[in-house]
Specification:
Layout lengths: L4 E6 L7 H14 L3 E5 L3 H5 L3 E4 L26 H14 L3 E6 L1 H12 L4 E5 L15 H22 L2 E6 L6 H10 L3 E3 L7 H13 L5 E6 L5 H12 L3 E5 L11 H19 L5 E6 L2 E6 H6 L6 H10 L2
Parallel strand pairs: 1-2, 1-4, 4-5, 5-10, 6-8, 6-9, 7-8
Antiparallel strand pairs: 2-3, 10-11
Helix pairs in contact: 1-9, 5-6, 6-11, 7-8
The protein binds adenosine-5'-diphosphate (ADP) and 6-O-phosphono-beta-D-fructofuranose.
Amino acid sequence: MSVKTIGVLTSGGDAPGMNAALRAVVRSAIANGIKVYGIHRGYNGLINDDVEELNLRSVSDIIHKGGTALFTARSPEFKTEEGMQKAIETCKKYGIEGCVVIGGDGSYRGARDLSLRGIPCVGIPGTIDNDISCTDITVGFDTAMNTAVEMIDKIRDTAQSHERCTVCEVMGRHCGDIALHVGVAVGATYILVPEIEFTFEEIIKKINKGQASGKKHFIIVVAEGVGGSFELAQKIEETTGIETRATILGHVQRGGNASVRDRVLASQMGVAAVELLKKGIGNRVIASRDNKIVDFDIYEALQMKQEFDKHLYDVALEIGI
Ligand code: ADP
Ligand code: F6P
Protein backbone atom coordinates (compact mmCIF):
# COMPACT_ATOMS: atom_id res chain seq x y z
CA MET A 1 0.00 0.00 0.00
CA SER A 2 1.42 3.39 -0.92
CA VAL A 3 0.28 6.32 1.22
CA LYS A 4 -0.34 9.69 -0.47
CA THR A 5 -1.39 11.94 2.44
CA ILE A 6 -0.27 12.03 6.08
CA GLY A 7 -0.78 14.24 9.13
CA VAL A 8 1.71 15.24 11.81
CA LEU A 9 1.02 16.44 15.34
CA THR A 10 2.83 17.20 18.59
CA SER A 11 1.13 16.14 21.82
CA GLY A 12 1.67 16.23 25.60
CA GLY A 13 4.48 18.29 27.15
CA ASP A 14 6.59 20.09 24.55
CA ALA A 15 10.29 19.32 24.16
CA PRO A 16 13.18 21.02 22.34
CA GLY A 17 13.73 19.12 19.10
CA MET A 18 10.04 18.64 18.33
CA ASN A 19 10.38 21.30 15.63
CA ALA A 20 13.39 19.54 14.11
CA ALA A 21 11.32 16.33 13.99
CA LEU A 22 8.39 18.18 12.40
CA ARG A 23 10.70 19.67 9.78
CA ALA A 24 12.17 16.26 8.95
CA VAL A 25 8.70 14.70 8.64
CA VAL A 26 7.48 17.43 6.29
CA ARG A 27 10.61 17.55 4.13
CA SER A 28 10.92 13.77 3.91
CA ALA A 29 7.23 13.31 3.08
CA ILE A 30 7.33 15.92 0.32
CA ALA A 31 10.53 14.39 -1.07
CA ASN A 32 8.57 11.13 -1.35
CA GLY A 33 5.59 12.74 -3.09
CA ILE A 34 3.40 12.64 0.05
CA LYS A 35 1.10 15.52 0.99
CA VAL A 36 1.41 16.57 4.68
CA TYR A 37 -1.12 18.21 6.96
CA GLY A 38 0.01 19.84 10.19
CA ILE A 39 -2.49 19.13 12.97
CA HIS A 40 -2.59 21.87 15.60
CA ARG A 41 -2.76 21.44 19.37
CA GLY A 42 -2.22 17.70 19.57
CA TYR A 43 -5.23 15.43 19.16
CA ASN A 44 -7.51 18.44 19.69
CA GLY A 45 -6.61 19.51 16.15
CA LEU A 46 -8.15 16.31 14.80
CA ILE A 47 -11.24 16.68 16.96
CA ASN A 48 -11.76 20.37 16.08
CA ASP A 49 -10.70 20.22 12.42
CA ASP A 50 -7.73 22.49 13.16
CA VAL A 51 -5.35 21.43 10.38
CA GLU A 52 -3.38 23.09 7.58
CA GLU A 53 -1.44 21.77 4.63
CA LEU A 54 2.32 22.22 5.08
CA ASN A 55 4.86 22.86 2.36
CA LEU A 56 8.65 22.94 2.27
CA ARG A 57 8.71 26.55 3.45
CA SER A 58 6.20 26.00 6.30
CA VAL A 59 9.02 24.40 8.28
CA SER A 60 11.80 26.85 7.39
CA ASP A 61 13.72 28.44 10.24
CA ILE A 62 12.47 26.09 12.98
CA ILE A 63 15.17 23.39 13.16
CA HIS A 64 16.84 25.10 16.11
CA LYS A 65 13.80 26.39 18.01
CA GLY A 66 12.42 24.99 21.25
CA GLY A 67 8.66 24.57 21.66
CA THR A 68 6.52 23.34 18.81
CA ALA A 69 5.29 25.31 15.80
CA LEU A 70 2.20 23.07 15.74
CA PHE A 71 1.34 23.95 19.36
CA THR A 72 0.64 21.11 21.77
CA ALA A 73 -2.17 20.12 24.12
CA ARG A 74 -3.46 17.44 26.39
CA SER A 75 -6.79 16.27 25.03
CA PRO A 76 -9.05 14.41 27.47
CA GLU A 77 -11.79 14.31 24.79
CA PHE A 78 -9.59 12.20 22.54
CA LYS A 79 -9.75 9.41 25.12
CA THR A 80 -13.53 9.13 24.61
CA GLU A 81 -15.10 7.15 21.76
CA GLU A 82 -16.92 10.28 20.60
CA GLY A 83 -13.66 12.28 20.43
CA MET A 84 -11.95 9.44 18.60
CA GLN A 85 -14.76 9.29 16.01
CA LYS A 86 -14.52 13.06 15.42
CA ALA A 87 -10.76 12.63 14.87
CA ILE A 88 -11.36 9.86 12.34
CA GLU A 89 -13.92 12.03 10.52
CA THR A 90 -11.32 14.81 10.18
CA CYS A 91 -8.78 12.34 8.81
CA LYS A 92 -11.34 11.16 6.24
CA LYS A 93 -12.22 14.75 5.30
CA TYR A 94 -8.61 15.54 4.36
CA GLY A 95 -7.75 12.08 3.07
CA ILE A 96 -5.20 11.63 5.88
CA GLU A 97 -4.13 7.98 5.61
CA GLY A 98 -1.57 7.97 8.41
CA CYS A 99 -0.16 10.20 11.18
CA VAL A 100 3.14 10.94 12.82
CA VAL A 101 2.61 11.58 16.53
CA ILE A 102 5.45 13.36 18.30
CA GLY A 103 5.00 13.04 22.07
CA GLY A 104 5.30 10.84 25.13
CA ASP A 105 3.79 7.51 26.11
CA GLY A 106 0.33 9.03 26.70
CA SER A 107 0.38 10.25 23.11
CA TYR A 108 1.45 6.74 22.00
CA ARG A 109 -1.69 5.28 23.58
CA GLY A 110 -3.72 7.66 21.44
CA ALA A 111 -1.64 6.71 18.38
CA ARG A 112 -2.33 3.06 19.08
CA ASP A 113 -6.07 3.68 19.39
CA LEU A 114 -6.11 5.52 16.06
CA SER A 115 -4.03 2.80 14.39
CA LEU A 116 -6.47 0.14 15.61
CA ARG A 117 -9.29 2.16 14.00
CA GLY A 118 -7.67 2.23 10.58
CA ILE A 119 -5.41 5.31 10.67
CA PRO A 120 -1.87 3.96 10.93
CA CYS A 121 0.22 6.09 13.29
CA VAL A 122 3.94 6.21 14.01
CA GLY A 123 5.22 7.72 17.27
CA ILE A 124 8.38 9.76 17.76
CA PRO A 125 9.54 10.03 21.39
CA GLY A 126 9.37 13.75 22.22
CA THR A 127 9.70 14.45 25.93
CA ILE A 128 12.43 15.91 28.12
CA ASP A 129 11.90 13.26 30.82
CA ASN A 130 13.54 10.35 28.92
CA ASP A 131 10.79 8.16 30.33
CA ILE A 132 10.07 6.07 27.25
CA SER A 133 11.40 2.58 27.85
CA CYS A 134 11.92 1.40 24.28
CA THR A 135 14.42 4.13 23.40
CA ASP A 136 17.80 4.92 24.94
CA ILE A 137 17.10 8.62 24.51
CA THR A 138 14.08 10.82 23.81
CA VAL A 139 14.02 14.03 21.77
CA GLY A 140 14.44 16.92 24.22
CA PHE A 141 16.29 15.07 26.99
CA ASP A 142 19.75 16.25 25.93
CA THR A 143 18.76 19.91 25.63
CA ALA A 144 16.90 19.87 28.95
CA MET A 145 19.90 18.35 30.73
CA ASN A 146 22.24 20.92 29.24
CA THR A 147 19.93 23.74 30.30
CA ALA A 148 19.70 22.39 33.83
CA VAL A 149 23.48 22.01 34.05
CA GLU A 150 24.00 25.58 32.81
CA MET A 151 21.61 26.87 35.49
CA ILE A 152 23.14 24.81 38.29
CA ASP A 153 26.65 25.91 37.29
CA LYS A 154 25.47 29.47 37.91
CA ILE A 155 23.92 28.49 41.25
CA ARG A 156 27.20 26.79 42.17
CA ASP A 157 29.07 30.11 41.82
CA THR A 158 26.94 31.75 44.48
CA ALA A 159 26.83 28.63 46.67
CA GLN A 160 30.63 28.52 46.55
CA SER A 161 31.00 32.22 47.47
CA HIS A 162 28.64 31.92 50.41
CA GLU A 163 29.82 28.44 51.43
CA ARG A 164 26.27 27.20 51.27
CA CYS A 165 24.42 24.06 50.45
CA THR A 166 22.08 24.33 47.46
CA VAL A 167 19.16 22.04 46.73
CA CYS A 168 18.31 22.11 43.01
CA GLU A 169 15.08 20.53 41.79
CA VAL A 170 15.01 19.42 38.17
CA MET A 171 12.09 18.12 36.09
CA GLY A 172 11.11 14.46 35.86
CA ARG A 173 7.72 13.46 37.15
CA HIS A 174 8.20 9.70 37.44
CA CYS A 175 11.65 9.33 35.99
CA GLY A 176 14.94 10.38 37.61
CA ASP A 177 17.03 10.39 34.42
CA ILE A 178 17.40 14.18 34.21
CA ALA A 179 18.37 14.33 37.91
CA LEU A 180 20.82 11.44 37.55
CA HIS A 181 22.71 12.77 34.53
CA VAL A 182 22.60 16.39 35.66
CA GLY A 183 23.71 15.29 39.13
CA VAL A 184 26.76 13.56 37.66
CA ALA A 185 27.54 16.56 35.44
CA VAL A 186 27.44 19.10 38.27
CA GLY A 187 29.25 16.87 40.76
CA ALA A 188 26.31 16.65 43.15
CA THR A 189 26.91 15.46 46.70
CA TYR A 190 23.58 13.62 46.64
CA ILE A 191 20.97 12.83 43.97
CA LEU A 192 17.37 12.12 44.91
CA VAL A 193 15.32 10.21 42.33
CA PRO A 194 11.95 8.43 42.53
CA GLU A 195 13.55 5.10 41.56
CA ILE A 196 15.90 4.86 44.56
CA GLU A 197 14.95 4.95 48.23
CA PHE A 198 16.98 7.25 50.45
CA THR A 199 16.93 8.50 54.02
CA PHE A 200 17.55 12.01 55.27
CA GLU A 201 20.30 10.59 57.52
CA GLU A 202 22.21 9.31 54.47
CA ILE A 203 22.22 12.78 52.94
CA ILE A 204 23.48 14.34 56.18
CA LYS A 205 26.14 11.63 56.54
CA LYS A 206 27.40 12.44 53.05
CA ILE A 207 27.49 16.18 53.75
CA ASN A 208 29.33 15.58 57.05
CA LYS A 209 31.87 13.36 55.29
CA GLY A 210 32.51 16.12 52.75
CA GLN A 211 32.84 18.69 55.53
CA ALA A 212 35.40 16.53 57.31
CA SER A 213 37.60 16.63 54.21
CA GLY A 214 37.30 20.44 53.94
CA LYS A 215 34.37 20.71 51.55
CA LYS A 216 32.55 24.00 52.00
CA HIS A 217 29.68 24.02 49.50
CA PHE A 218 27.30 21.27 48.49
CA ILE A 219 24.90 20.59 45.64
CA ILE A 220 21.93 18.28 46.17
CA VAL A 221 19.97 17.47 42.99
CA VAL A 222 16.34 16.46 43.47
CA ALA A 223 14.00 15.06 40.81
CA GLU A 224 10.59 16.71 40.65
CA GLY A 225 9.01 13.29 41.30
CA VAL A 226 10.64 13.27 44.76
CA GLY A 227 9.82 16.94 45.42
CA GLY A 228 9.91 18.62 48.84
CA SER A 229 13.03 20.65 48.01
CA PHE A 230 12.24 23.65 50.23
CA GLU A 231 11.51 21.44 53.24
CA LEU A 232 14.67 19.45 52.57
CA ALA A 233 16.76 22.64 52.41
CA GLN A 234 15.34 23.81 55.73
CA LYS A 235 16.03 20.45 57.39
CA ILE A 236 19.60 20.36 56.08
CA GLU A 237 20.24 23.85 57.45
CA GLU A 238 18.73 22.98 60.85
CA THR A 239 20.67 19.72 61.12
CA THR A 240 24.09 20.77 59.81
CA GLY A 241 24.15 24.49 60.50
CA ILE A 242 25.16 25.07 56.87
CA GLU A 243 23.16 27.87 55.24
CA THR A 244 21.00 26.19 52.61
CA ARG A 245 18.88 27.48 49.71
CA ALA A 246 16.54 25.68 47.34
CA THR A 247 15.82 26.43 43.68
CA ILE A 248 13.18 24.77 41.52
CA LEU A 249 14.42 25.10 37.95
CA GLY A 250 10.96 24.45 36.45
CA HIS A 251 9.88 25.12 32.89
CA VAL A 252 13.11 26.82 31.86
CA GLN A 253 14.24 23.23 31.22
CA ARG A 254 11.54 22.72 28.60
CA GLY A 255 12.52 25.67 26.40
CA GLY A 256 15.47 26.99 24.45
CA ASN A 257 17.25 26.05 21.24
CA ALA A 258 17.64 22.31 20.76
CA SER A 259 21.11 20.81 21.21
CA VAL A 260 23.01 19.22 18.31
CA ARG A 261 22.16 15.78 19.65
CA ASP A 262 18.43 16.54 19.79
CA ARG A 263 18.38 18.10 16.31
CA VAL A 264 20.17 15.12 14.77
CA LEU A 265 18.09 12.55 16.64
CA ALA A 266 14.84 14.33 15.77
CA SER A 267 15.82 14.57 12.10
CA GLN A 268 16.71 10.86 11.91
CA MET A 269 13.49 9.87 13.67
CA GLY A 270 11.32 12.11 11.49
CA VAL A 271 12.68 10.50 8.34
CA ALA A 272 12.30 6.98 9.79
CA ALA A 273 8.65 7.67 10.68
CA VAL A 274 7.84 8.75 7.12
CA GLU A 275 9.62 5.68 5.70
CA LEU A 276 7.21 3.44 7.65
CA LEU A 277 4.06 5.41 6.86
CA LYS A 278 5.00 5.57 3.18
CA LYS A 279 4.64 1.77 3.14
CA GLY A 280 1.36 1.99 5.05
CA ILE A 281 2.99 0.61 8.21
CA GLY A 282 1.55 2.04 11.44
CA ASN A 283 1.17 1.20 15.11
CA ARG A 284 4.95 1.61 15.49
CA VAL A 285 7.23 3.87 17.50
CA ILE A 286 10.67 5.04 16.45
CA ALA A 287 13.47 4.51 18.95
CA SER A 288 17.22 4.89 19.28
CA ARG A 289 19.02 1.78 20.49
CA ASP A 290 22.80 1.66 20.70
CA ASN A 291 22.93 4.69 18.41
CA LYS A 292 20.82 2.99 15.75
CA ILE A 293 17.35 4.09 14.69
CA VAL A 294 14.89 1.21 15.07
CA ASP A 295 11.14 0.79 15.53
CA PHE A 296 8.81 -1.22 17.75
CA ASP A 297 5.15 -2.17 17.89
CA ILE A 298 3.43 0.49 20.06
CA TYR A 299 1.85 -2.07 22.37
CA GLU A 300 5.18 -3.84 22.92
CA ALA A 301 6.89 -0.49 23.45
CA LEU A 302 4.36 0.49 26.11
CA GLN A 303 4.88 -2.84 27.92
CA MET A 304 8.67 -2.44 28.12
CA LYS A 305 10.07 -1.77 31.57
CA GLN A 306 12.08 1.39 32.17
CA GLU A 307 15.53 0.55 33.53
CA PHE A 308 17.19 3.02 35.85
CA ASP A 309 20.99 3.22 35.58
CA LYS A 310 21.82 2.20 39.15
CA HIS A 311 25.49 1.80 38.31
CA LEU A 312 25.77 5.44 37.20
CA TYR A 313 23.88 6.46 40.35
CA ASP A 314 26.33 4.58 42.60
CA VAL A 315 29.29 6.03 40.73
CA ALA A 316 27.87 9.54 41.08
CA LEU A 317 27.55 9.20 44.85
CA GLU A 318 31.03 7.71 45.13
CA ILE A 319 32.74 10.58 43.34
CA GLY A 320 30.45 13.39 44.53
CA ILE A 321 32.36 13.88 47.74
P1 ADP B 1 2.64 12.52 26.96
O1 ADP B 1 2.37 12.15 25.56
O2 ADP B 1 3.71 13.56 27.09
O3 ADP B 1 2.87 11.31 27.86
P2 ADP B 1 -0.04 12.80 28.10
O4 ADP B 1 0.06 11.58 28.96
O5 ADP B 1 -0.65 14.02 28.66
O6 ADP B 1 1.36 13.28 27.53
O7 ADP B 1 -0.86 12.37 26.80
C1 ADP B 1 -1.06 13.27 25.73
C2 ADP B 1 -2.39 13.02 25.10
O8 ADP B 1 -2.45 11.71 24.54
C3 ADP B 1 -3.59 13.06 26.06
O9 ADP B 1 -4.02 14.35 26.34
C4 ADP B 1 -4.62 12.30 25.26
O10 ADP B 1 -5.20 13.11 24.25
C5 ADP B 1 -3.78 11.23 24.60
N1 ADP B 1 -3.84 10.01 25.42
C6 ADP B 1 -3.22 9.79 26.59
N2 ADP B 1 -3.55 8.59 27.10
C7 ADP B 1 -4.43 8.05 26.24
C8 ADP B 1 -5.15 6.81 26.21
N3 ADP B 1 -5.03 5.90 27.17
N4 ADP B 1 -5.96 6.60 25.15
C9 ADP B 1 -6.09 7.51 24.17
N5 ADP B 1 -5.44 8.68 24.15
C10 ADP B 1 -4.62 8.97 25.16
O1 F6P C 1 6.74 15.41 30.90
C1 F6P C 1 7.53 16.53 30.84
C2 F6P C 1 7.29 17.42 32.03
O2 F6P C 1 8.07 18.59 31.86
C3 F6P C 1 7.57 16.79 33.39
O3 F6P C 1 8.93 16.75 33.71
C4 F6P C 1 6.76 17.69 34.28
O4 F6P C 1 6.37 17.01 35.45
C5 F6P C 1 5.57 18.00 33.45
O5 F6P C 1 5.93 17.83 32.10
C6 F6P C 1 5.03 19.38 33.66
O6 F6P C 1 3.91 19.54 32.88
P1 F6P C 1 3.11 20.91 32.69
O7 F6P C 1 3.41 21.35 31.30
O8 F6P C 1 1.69 20.49 32.80
O9 F6P C 1 3.56 21.87 33.72
